[in-house]
Amino acid sequence: MGGPVREAKQTPAALGFRLPAEWEPHEATWLAWPHNRSDWPGKFTTVPWAYGEITRKIAPGETVRILVNSGAHQAQAERILTRVGVNRSRVQFYRFRTNRGWTRDFGPMFIRRERETPGLAIARFRFNGWARYPDWKQDDAIPGHVGRALGCRLFDASAKGQAVVLEGGSIDVNGRGTLLTTEACFLDPSTQVRNPGLGQAEITATLCAYLGVTNVLWLGQGIDGDDTHGHIDDFCRFVGPHTVILCREDHSHDANYRPLQENRERLEGMRLEDGSKIEIVALPMPAPLFLHKQRLPASYANFYIANAAVLVPTFNDPKDRLALGILSELFSDRPVIGIHAVDLVWGLGTLHCLTREQPAL
After folding, report:
1. Are strands 243-248 and 236-240 parallel, antiparallel or unpaired?
2. Span 26-359: which CATH code?
3. Which helix (H) or strand (E) is 173 found in, with range?
4. Residue ranges per structural domain of the chain
5. Per residue in 132-155, pLDDT tens?
6. Torsion of CA 86, 62, 64, 113, to 10 degrees
7. Distance between CA 245 and CA 327 in Å, rounded?
8. 353 labelled catalytic
9. Could you say which of 152, 185, 247, 353 is catalytic?
10. Of 77, 85, 26, 22, residue with least CA distance to 51
11. 9 pLDDT band (50/70/90 cuts)?
């Protein structure tokens, strides 16, 4: 296939592209097979098996496209996928080197156009290791590699003459024009600053121009233990065009209690792109999870909506069943399946952080 065609003058929104909601049909899900042991120190041996189980649940409904570093890396993945019973005809491998496995944040952000000439493109935001870690350059190159492999157009997102940094876990959309994000992630002037010199107005305009949204809603802080400093996909997600789930902490002494209450108050005063109020469904938080005295960002909100199932992280917690029940009522068109994530979350992320959907045309 040909290389990516970069559009310099017209924005994706002007050309009719938009970022679909996650529940819209997928052609594929992208994963980066794990290899960086520093993300799961002392627990890495269990992590590839968790990826195998994730793949096994996604593959019945769509292709799973897996990034690997080498032939040996691919062979390791193939052995595990075979042992857990994955239909290998549903899996494709791409040998593009990565630093880490958090595909949500650095992977290709696919945008789709339905009108006139239907097509798929990539909104090319930059990745810099969450403005926190030094090893990120291979991850940042992945959208370009994928664009070349698929022959997708790449739109380089910029504002005020500078490339815009954005991680996929920092936003969530309803597919109708509304996007959720946080001030902590984009606007904090001193902590993990992604885009120095860009304020709320510039970030909002960029999101609208490159993702085809018209209504950007800004929440406040994220949850405790989140090393991304405020990703939305750890506490508030769209589950339908007019409905969000918002995590709720019932213990007033917990570090998450006040930020989640404040975010609820904000949401209650916000409106969707059509002017309607947002339906808010409370999702419980599991009991705090620690390892080596470090709080981990355990949250049921980090679920992934695949074609064949909704995969929900579980934590050996009494609230696992309650969270699965709430999400089962919201997603009546596909099964809701719990995936054991106690080992995964030691990497400071779980299912949504690992996955990136490619919309179907």
Report:
1. antiparallel
2. 3.75.10.10
3. strand 172-173
4. 26-359
5. 999 999 999 999 999 999 999 999
6. 180
7. 9
8. yes
9. 353
10. 77
11. low
